[in-house]
Design a protein that fits this description.
By secondary structure, the chain is an all-beta fold. The protein contains 1 helix and 11 strands.
Length: 143
């Protein structure tokens, strides 16, 4: 993972961690005033997306997961320690190629299911080299 290279950060284990202000208030329609009265504490980006020592970030390429709100070019946080289950969105290595798909269990076995009707679900076969690298825990989309 590359260091977060921003001012107002602190050095932690050879990387800079930047904290973000956390406002403890309800927002109905708009954004809270950045007045210090609302400022409770700070939160790191790692806390925001649930990062653990086994979490890595990866950029998504392609439109196959758009229906799961994972567009081309976004970044996903993937936890290698999370146990995948039916319905999880996973990053997997299939026959030497990385892919991000929903893991579905059926009578035929495991299926890698795209969240875009233009893509055909893939039934994992016994002869496939298949390994789940981790479970997607957060999606980061730049506006």
């Amino acid at each position: 993972m590359r260091a977060i290279d921003k001012p107002a950060g602190e050095q932690v284990k050879n990387r800079i961690v930047r904290t973000l202000p956390f406002f403890d208030t309800t927002v109905n329609a708009g954004f809270p005033s950045p007045a210090q009265d609302y400022h409770e504490n700070e939160i790191t980006p790692e806390e925001l997306i649930g990062m653990t020592p086994t979490t890595f970030l990866v950029r998504v390429s392609g439109p196959s997961m758009e229906g799961a709100h994972i567009p081309h070019g976004c970044v996903v946080a993937v936890d290698r320690s999370a146990k995948p289950s039916a319905g999880s969105i996973v990053v997997a290595l299939l026959n030497g190629e990385f892919t991000i798909k929903r893991l579905v269990r059926s009578h035929a076995g495991w299926i890698l299911h795209a969240e875009n009707p233009s893509f055909t679900p893939y039934v994992v076969k016994d002869e496939d080299q298949f390994d789940v690298w981790g479970v997607v825990k957060a999606i980061v989309i730049k506006p």
